[in-house]
């Protein structure tokens, strides 16, 4: 079986004789690309809608989702380094042909759902910043292909740096906006405690599953297992052990930043809009409410709304990069078909814009319908997630794939299986409740 993402595999220097800090710096990067998926436009809409509609109670969901994400991404990184394969290659090897095709189709749909969220988020940001109609904004997002081509030519390390700058731009913007919004600290801290309202209230459960789907994204498990192999670490047991250590540190640090950003998004929605008589929690609602708010004075509202739109655009563009890499990994791993990155990117983006254009055609430039579609994509990701988690657990517990010393510890197996089962049960519950509504 060929190398995962052969064009970048083992291309980034890694000095095994360096001290611990220098090793960490050399390995810093793959976690940034993974963290992008944890703060894309899908996260925005679910977290901010959750805060605006249900206050702080869904902070608990962000907390457990982020903790679960750290575990799953560390397993994904360990799989890539220990086996020398990515999750798509391993799944294709473990499954029979029908199961392999099913897993590929579901993963492709998950990537498309992610891409739809990026399209909608970027198009809305262009509308908010430059008053560009949604249909034209969606068309412009197809040009992301050209942007990606230019970025890829700079080299993989440069891609990591660009992504890092955009992530910290988003972080600083929302730290500033939450500071101005003056949230209730006591209520905020209480939000990290589990509440029965999350399960008893179907609307809250729907948003909670959207947050889970937006936080633990299926394509990120495939992405991480591949890009951790970009470093030139020794492919010996000792070299792999060291690489796993620094890959895990990198991943946990970046996902901690993503956790903070997602909490800031929800806190901003709750602090400014929870309990309001208005129907808030969507991008346009929040943008206009921010622009009209008196937080930070008369000028403050305009600054906050503009920064909100800038951060949304940065988030959408960031996700474009990782979505393309994930698509390439999945197609090559499952089908062993290699396409040029720009061909793959163009095909994925054109497919992603079709349902958005259909929605615009049926409903016109209906802001609420477009944003409903975005929330649905995140819930779909939650429904698809167990089908990526289960192969990951099976693979990382298989000594023939991992080697004896790199298989899961008992506690990792227990927690990951509980996560897969609980998520599956909640998904089934939501499907049943949704069907009941239509009967």
Automatic annotation (TrEMBL):
> What topology in the membrane does the UniProt record assign?
Multi-pass membrane protein
InterPro entries in alphabetical order: NRAMP_fam
> An example Gene Ontology cellular component term from the record?
plasma membrane
What are the recorded GO MF terms, alphabetically?
Answer: cadmium ion transmembrane transporter activity; manganese ion transmembrane transporter activity; metal ion binding; symporter activity
Q: What family is reported?
A: Belongs to the NRAMP family.
Among PANTHER family, the record links this protein to: NATURAL RESISTANCE-ASSOCIATED MACROPHAGE PROTEIN 2 (PTHR11706:SF33), SOLUTE CARRIER PROTEIN FAMILY 11 MEMBER (PTHR11706)
> What HAMAP family has UniProt attached to this entry?
NRAMP
Q: What does this protein do?
A: H(+)-stimulated, divalent metal cation uptake system.
Indicate what this protein is called per its UniProt record: Divalent metal cation transporter MntH
Species name: Mammaliicoccus stepanovicii
State the gene name recorded for this protein.
mntH_1
């Amino acid at each position: 079986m060929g190398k995962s993402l052969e064009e970048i595999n083992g291309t980034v220097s890694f000095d095994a004789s360096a001290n611990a800090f220098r090793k960490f710096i050399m390995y810093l990067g793959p976690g940034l690309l993974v963290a992008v998926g944890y703060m894309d436009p899908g996260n925005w809409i679910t977290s901010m809608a959750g805060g605006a509609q249900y206050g702080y109670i869904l902070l608990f969901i962000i907390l457990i989702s982020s903790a679960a994400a750290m575990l799953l991404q560390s397993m994904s990184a360990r799989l890539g380094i220990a086996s020398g394969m990515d999750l798509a290659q391993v799944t294709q090897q473990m499954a029979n042909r029908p199961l392999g095709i099913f897993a590929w189709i579901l993963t492709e749909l998950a990537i498309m759902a992610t891409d739809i969220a990026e399209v909608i988020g970027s198009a809305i940001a262009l509308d908010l910043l430059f008053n560009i109609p949604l249909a034209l904004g969606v068309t412009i997002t197809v040009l992301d292909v050209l942007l990606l081509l230019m970025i890829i030519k700079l080299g993989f390390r440069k891609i990591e740096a660009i992504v890092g700058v955009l992530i910290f731009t988003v972080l600083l913007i929302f730290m500033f906006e939450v500071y101005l919004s003056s949230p209730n600290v006591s209520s905020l801290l209480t939000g990290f405690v589990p509440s029965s309202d999350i399960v008893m209230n179907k609307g809250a459960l729907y948003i909670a599953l959207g947050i889970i789907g937006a936080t633990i994204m299926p394509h990120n498990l495939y992405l991480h297992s591949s890009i951790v192999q970009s470093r030139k670490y020794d492919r010996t047991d000792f070299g792999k052990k060291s690489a796993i250590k620094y890959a895990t540190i990198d991943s946990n640090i970046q996902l901690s930043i993503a956790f903070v950003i997602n909490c800031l998004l929800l806190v901003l929605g709750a602090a400014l809009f929870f309990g309001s008589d208005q129907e808030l929690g969507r991008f346009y609602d929040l943008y206009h409410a921010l622009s009209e708010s008196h937080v930070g004075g008369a000028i403050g509202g305009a600054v906050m709304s503009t920064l909100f739109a800038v951060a949304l655009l940065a988030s959408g563009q960031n996700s474009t990069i990782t979505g393309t890499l994930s698509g390439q990994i999945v197609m090559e791993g499952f089908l062993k078909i290699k396409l040029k990155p720009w061909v793959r990117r163009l095909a994925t983006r054109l497919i992603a814009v079709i349902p958005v254009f259909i929605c615009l055609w049926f409903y016109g430039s209906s802001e609420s319908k477009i944003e409903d579609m975005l929330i649905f994509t995140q819930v779909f990701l939650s429904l698809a997630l167990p089908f990526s988690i289960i192969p990951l657990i099976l693979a990382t517990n298989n000594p023939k794939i991992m080697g004896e010393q790199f298989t899961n510890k008992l506690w990792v197996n227990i927690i990951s299986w509980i996560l897969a089962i609980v998520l599956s049960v909640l998904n089934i519950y939501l499907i049943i409740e949704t069907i009941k509504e239509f009967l």
